[in-house]
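User: Predict the structure for this protein chain, please.
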Amino acid sequence: MKPTAPLPLKDGVAPSYLWLQDAAGSWSNMLDFLVARFPGVTEEAWRLRMARGEVVNQDGVALAPDSPYRRGDCIFYYRDLEGSEAPIPFTEQILHQDAHLLVVDKPHFVPVIPTGRFLHESLLVRLKKKTGLADLTPIHRLDRETAGVIIFSHNPASRGAYQAMFQQRTMDKTYEALAGMLEGRSFPFVHRSRMVDADKFFLMREEEGEPNSETHVDLIERRGVLGLYRLNPVTGRKHQLRVHMAALGVPIVNDNFYPHVVPAGMADDYDAPLKLLARSIAFTDPLSGDVRYFESLRTL
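Assistant: Here is the predicted structure, written as structure tokens:
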């Protein structure tokens, strides 16, 4: 269970937390532990954070460099990035807000949650700053490269009901993708395969065996040598639509992962977004029983 944070939001960023699990006596003090646990953060940076009272235990007690390491404690701290974070020049749009949900139209290139080199430019932190909703949490996934509709919960009391809806796949998710033209196929059709982790931790691949992924594929229109496709994933495997389209021989336009990884630097090519859009989500609200439908305003 996620513990209650004794630190407030800081510029839209919620504190991170870590349970101390090493045996008592493994570390002489908290500073030694933190420097070893987070090699990317300097000792000076930890000392400054501690001096500001930004490293605390589960009771909200500020930790000092010489505070003892106590197995079973939970420490809270703010994640920070060394150096400046480059802004992502695309803006999200709020499609709907009620007492439970925030529905957002996400742009390409924006990660949903803080990760790697992204913190303040993540969608979650952006939205916390914009709305002031401290309990905001995404209730399903959307790749950084993918644009479109994503739903957040901001009410902990009702969050489980909406999360269960996605876990049980009782919602209809529709995507659109631009890819090479599939010649000689009758539409719509279903693609099923067995997807597993690839050698690289961030990739997936297909292999022989019992299918564990399913996507319904339809053609919306032909655009010269390309086709605009409607994709309805029945399952929710990581990178499922990207893997399935590549396996069909028509990888999604500007996909730098499938069928082959394209080496890239730190900077994104904003002129070449992945042509994949989470067009809409529809579901029966687990609280009210109303049919809900949310659609992206973006186009490919």
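Residues 100 and 165 are 14 Å apart (CA to CA).
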